[in-house]
Amino acid sequence: MAGGQAGHRGRPAGPAGRPGHAPSDEQCPRGRARWRPRRAGGLHDRLPLPGRDRGRAAHQHRTAAAEPDHHRVPARSGPGLAHRRAAPGAGAGPGGIGLVNLIPALPPAFAHQTPATRLVLGDGAIDALRTELPLLRIRRPMLLAGARTQASALFARVLAALDGPACVRADAVPAHSSSGLVERLASLARETGVDGFIAVGGGSASDTAKAVALLLAEGGRLADHAVRFTPPATLVVPPLRADKLPIVAVPGTASGAEVTASLGVRDDELGAKLLFTDPRLAARLVLIDPQANLEVPAALMCATGMNGLAHCIEGLYSRERSPLAETLALDAAARFAEALPAVHRDPADAAARARLLYAAHLSGRVLLNARTCLHHAICHAIGAVAGVGHGDANAVLLPHSVAFNADGATADTARALARAATSLGAPAEPGALAPALVALQAAAGVPTRLRDIGVPATSLDRIAAKTMGERGLHYNPRPVSGAHELRALLDAAF
């Protein structure tokens, strides 16, 4: 969620869309038709799954003469494009759409950042700590991990690889890290001469390491450096210019958080999620060891993998997207679609876990540039209000968030949804993505209802209200008119 901000800090998004970009199909004139999915009731009750009802007789399509390629919305029926591949000579017409219709026009200008992150992936990758830490000039790292991770073989292997450097072990990091914990760890780091961080396990450990590095470098109160969003469209990103201590990440889940230059921490006073972004916070070294990941429960890997997949899907229609981020998002989404069911079927398959962890790494690079939208905004609010795991919230909500953005989608958004659908093996249709995600939920064995992950019905109004202050609304292609719209989405997911 970092990068590309400097040009519009504190500026409201005007009707022309993204600052610094020429108007596109996202700013659809009133007279232009918008794609609307057919009303089908609850996602898990009535939406067709991929491959079902493809033989409907009422095929509708747009001809090349009717509308330019770059304005055309993909046809709503027909087999479409599976896995982003088209038959030779395929074009717009009955039973499919041309490949050109799925490829958006190159924007007149865009920014894409690639932090200096070194990735080492493979069995035994953790052993690289011995040789890599001196290259980063880390002699006294702070070691951060959650309670479950601290009792794992993964953590033991990290400790064994740190036989040389004297490390400072932090207290166990909770699932939702807090501003108070960050301030205590920053004080400990100053007192002990910490010169780097090693985050082991899930996204909370990575976010905490980033937050401590940020506070040490920038000083003041942590909340002073948070991104501020004022509805409906004003986003302020405080300038963070100080160099940060290097971070090494050893991921144990599939969220991709270790790659990003952003983080979220719960404010102890407000009870809300504070969000921060700074390119200097991206991990300098990422070590992915699939063999060491085998003890992580498959349910946790799959739920966090849905979080990584959400990074990809939102990255395709975010108002901050870039062509490079879109390319990464499509590739990673296809990898998630294969690896999630594989890990669920056989938790002992180290190769499947390697594929899932690699997809997660790619998704983090998408998030780094494209940001997240409404879906993650709601998930942040759910975590702040109900305290449930971020992966579980993502797993439940993703089809519903997609359906919300598909309703009345502009041509650009409809195209993005269709491209995402093809990456999951579904027809190249905007309406095919939500049911494809429902099918993937079942194949990956993840939760599908908010009530099943511990979200009480009495909290839905608070979640909807809190979401209205989340910055993800700034990047969402469809404006949110009020909390009542979000309450309807939450009711459908409950």
- Count of helical segments? 17
CATH superfamily descriptor of the largest domain: Dehydroquinate synthase-like - alpha domain
- Secondary-structure-based class equals alpha/beta
Strand content: 5-15%
Mean pLDDT: 83
Order of helices and strands: HHEHEHHEHEHEEEEEEHHHHHHHHHH
Task: Walk across the major sheet and give the strand order.
Answer: 1-10-7-4-2-3
**What separation lies between the terminal Cα atoms?**
28 Å
User: What is the total tally of β strands?
Assistant: 10
CATH class of the largest domain: Mainly Alpha
- What characteristic shape results from the CA principal axes? globular
Summarize the main sheet.
6 strands, parallel
The CATH topology of the largest domain comes to Dehydroquinate synthase-like, alpha domain
Regions with little confidence, pLDDT below 50 for 5+ residues: 1-41, 45-99
What is Rg? 22 Å
Helix content: 40-55%
Count of the domains: 2
**CATH architecture group name of the largest domain:** Up-down Bundle
What labels would you give this structure?
single chain; 494 residues; alpha/beta; Rossmann fold; Dehydroquinate synthase-like, alpha domain; 2 domains; six-stranded parallel beta sheet; 17 helices; globular; disordered N terminus
What does this entry look like structurally?
It is a single chain. The chain is of the alpha/beta class. The chain is built from 17 helices and ten strands. The longest helix is centred in the C-terminal third of the chain and has 23 residues, at 323-345.
